[in-house]
Amino acid sequence: MGVLDWFRRKNRAAAEVGMAVFQRKYESFKRLLDANNDTLELMARLEAVAEGDFIFDMQFIRSRSQAILQKVGTIVEELNILGDNRYQALVDLYESLREKITQEIAAPVDTEIVPLVMPLSQVDRRHLHQVGGKNANLGELKNRLHVPTPEGFVITNAAFRLIIDENHLTERIRTFLDGLNLDNLEALSSQSRELQEAIRQAAIPPALQEEVAKHYQALAETLGYQPTLALRSSGIYEDQEYSFAGLFLTRLNVPFADFCTAYLEVLASQFNRRALVYLCQKRLVHREQAMSVGCLAMVPAVASGVLFTADPMGQRQGVMLVDAAWGLGPAVVDGTVTPDRFVLSKKPPIVLLEKHIHDKPVLLQGTKARGGLATVAVAPDQRRQPALTPEQLLTLGRYGLRLEEYFGEPLDIEFAVDPQGRLLIMQARPLLVESPSSEARLPAAVGEQEHVLIDGGMVACFGVAAGPVYLIQRDEDLAGFPEGAILVARHTSARYGMVLHKARGMVIDIGSATSHLAILAREFKVPAVVDTGVATTVLQPGQMITVDATHMRVYAGEVHALLEQAHKRTPSPIVASPMYAKLRRVMRWITPLNLVDPKLSDLTPENCKTLHDITRFAHQLGIKEMFDLAEKASQRDDIHSVKLKTSIPFNLHIIDLGGGIEASRRAKFVPPEAITSIPMRALWQGISHPDISWAGPIPIDMKGLYSVVSRSLTASTDHSDFWSRTFAIISYNYLNYSSRLGYHFATIDAYVSDIRNDNYITFRFKGGAADEVRRGRRVRFLGAVLEKLDFEVEVTGDLVVGRLWKYPRELMEEKLDMLGRLMGCARQRDMLMADDAIVDWYTEAFLAGNYRFEGSPQDTAGSPNQPPLP
Amino acid sequence: MNQAAKSSPGKILIVDDEPDMLEMLDMIITDKTNHRVITTNNPLEVGELLAKDNYNLVITDLKMPVMDGMDVIAEVKSRDPDIPVVVITAFGTIESAEEAVRRGAYDFITKPFRKEQILVTIERALDWQRLVRENRELKRSMKNSRG
What we know:
The structure holds 2 protein chains of 2 kinds.
Chain A: H1 3-8, H2 18-50, E1 54-55, H3 58-82, H4 88-105, E2 117-119, H5 128-143, E3 152-155, H6 157-166, H7 170-178, H8 185-200, H9 206-223, E4 229-235, E5 250-254, H10 259-268, H11 273-281, E6 291-297, E7 303-308, E8 319-326, H12 330-333, E9 340-345, E10 352-356, E11 362-366, E12 373-377, H13 390-407, E13 411-417, E14 423-430, E15 452-455, E16 458-461, E17 464-472, E18 486-489, E19 505-508, H14 516-523, E20 528-530, H15 535-538, E21 544-548, E22 553-556, H16 560-567, H17 578-587, H18 611-634, E23 642-644, E24 652-656, E25 669-670, H19 678-687, H20 702-707, E26 726-730, E27 734-741, E28 744-751, E29 760-767, H21 772-788, E30 792-796, E31 799-805, H22 809-826, H23 837-847, H24 857-861
Parallel strand pairs in A: 17-18, 18-19, 19-20, 23-25, 24-26
Antiparallel strand pairs in A: 2-3, 3-6, 4-5, 4-6, 7-8, 7-13, 8-9, 9-10, 11-12, 13-14, 15-22, 16-20, 17-21, 21-22, 23-24, 26-27, 27-28, 28-29, 29-31, 30-31
Helix pairs in contact in A: 2-3, 2-18, 3-4, 3-18, 8-10, 19-22, 21-23
Chain B: H1 3-7, E1 11-15, H2 19-32, E2 36-40, H3 46-52, E3 57-61, H4 69-79, E4 85-90, H5 94-102, E5 107-111, E6 113-114, H6 115-146
Parallel strand pairs in B: 1-2, 1-3, 3-4, 4-5
Helix pairs in contact in B: 3-4
């Protein structure tokens, strides 16, 4: 039964009271703990597999993520039973995560049932396999997030297959891909040209032409004019596990009359030389190649650019980066102009932290006659004006945050500003963020004798590499790129990506860490420094160099100390395989933990982003619900309880939920030996420790007594009313103990079993008579002891809370035993703590087992100054 | 078995309908050993591939559409009973894996598995093939010397 089904059966728990509801909720609590434990174990195993030592298949990813989903579903359901449906927000979150995970692990749909063309208004992530990553993401933005995006339609993969099939190219492509050989770039180039030409010459089947015309007409009707189109490629694997950054063709400002030519050109670009090399490098040739194309109404952008929702180099935390320039987008990503750079803070409210405005002499725009593009001069007074207004930047920042949260990872977002000043999102794709290891941040371990050739620039990919310099001045130079060389060039041209599988490192004169080539360098883990300014002039072809990209330095020769350091950090190659990439994509909704504040101040449903967060949230709140419930139950008259037969002046009421007391010993009074509850027995052992004195008056100083004005202090040896407010709700594994301890309220909530992950103790101690200063001293005493006993301690005013989780059973029993002793010792102890220094003495004494506090500094002081009682 | 024999390269055919799985196995084996790896995601090709070339080991997925791992075992054994077949099975299908061994598979390995596990199984299977062939050779020469 799903969580939603369960919610349809409403009004279950609200009206019921008494033992029955208590028992049922307790069962829920146990199921919650079980599911919590199973979930954490499944997640841990998944994380172990993702480290790179395992071989697994898609079925494994599916079955594991489904198993985790099912368990977390149980957790959410049980928490809502415990909390009388107060955690509805968690159900919604769970459902949305379930949908996202299910989409990631879904199998492709058969081509036959996929339409050839779909309006963008009907596309979302569920159509990933039909429309490719870029279109699926755009549809998701438009139709689920309702972010402003261009209007348009999508030509699916099925259309590509139809064209290939009808033009008898299917077999040719297969044979071509099977025979790809990266070692002969020239042969590859000519084969690529031939195949692309064959695709450009292909006939588009009439059925497809009709469909496209129909959708274009509908688009024109929606807009009220006949738009030119932007044709954007959207490969099956593009923008998912793999960037394919800048490898496929985009055609802008295409009049509908030229549609067929432009469409075929975009399809052909799938087999361009660079894309093919990338496929080989990424070991994707064996997969089916297909391409969907997004046809969007052209936005005559006055400005455009890219938003990175995180610093791709991982160096600056909590910022978003915006690059923007006048005119259409390609100017920004191709490096034609140096764009303005804006830095936004990520924490709401978003503010503009920095702006770097550059001279932008040219812009790219669509030409009116017959489509096409032209680079034109920017008006002199505009060149040094910021390409975005502060309002546009803030709007963009807000979109960025929303999208990042929705997609669950940092994003690279392309945007445009239309002539009305409205911001439109053109595409969003995952942003690969470098995370330099902590070692990498250390200063470079290099001797002073090493000759530094270049010092400075910008890191594009962290790491260290050595090799001979290979200088690229023209594209033709790429063909001769030798295995293991360092790529040195003037610009960050994405074309150089095709030799990255052979390059050990890269040093570039001009360019940014956000360029396509930099993205590729990170994907291929090629240590790279860009923007050095001098690489092509300082470095000589064939010269042996060591690139320390992490510290932006280039050394002459091989610097062995650096290389050895770097070698130790090389990960297993298998983690780069498609299956591992898929696993990581699924896991981003499952295993990351965002609720990491030990003080639990972040414990709200809004802060839960993953299944792990939900699990942690539900576990904590489940304990709280159970605790509240037990407290309420102890105040009820209609719940049956038994009393403990003991010489200790203790009127302890016990509610047994099952398995807590020997079945044969059920009577109104039972002896302590009849307790079978693991935590209760352990606690009782501490309470009844021979050195703990519960009976008789304890030594007091009269100031302390004076402050306890309203109650009798003397505890008699019989079962007096004084102790009557002590209750324990127990089962075999569970204990909720709440006690008026003298004038203080103490509670223990504990679960102890053989499964250590389920085990916890929460101890709370509050209030007390005496004055505030003295109460504070007692709380400090308790806090100090609890800390020594390995509890996580929080002290707020006169409330001390100690928490302990996931210790093995024996240790949990030991801790409960100590808590029993501590409660005994602590009763009224504040009255003896006449000054601050004494707190430490009592702490030490307790830990040394001196439970009677013999030799206390206050014993010798005696009690001479007794004030008269009122 | 001495070290030299152990590291002598073998030719391994891997059959799995999931190309990404083939890719991963290929990556692991070629990264860690000097064996040659040929892969196919079409089990119907197995006969043809075996006819064209000499293989020292076949690794096959058990559950595949059209022709399953059992059929692959039969195909391999009908051509050369000395080629060991290692079967890869999904977790929870131990029974069919045991059935595969009854039908002549050398061993089975359950997904997900560690890299080392498949590498060790490969070495053992190749050793087994060497032993079987040496044995056969020995018997033949004994027979000849007696005859």
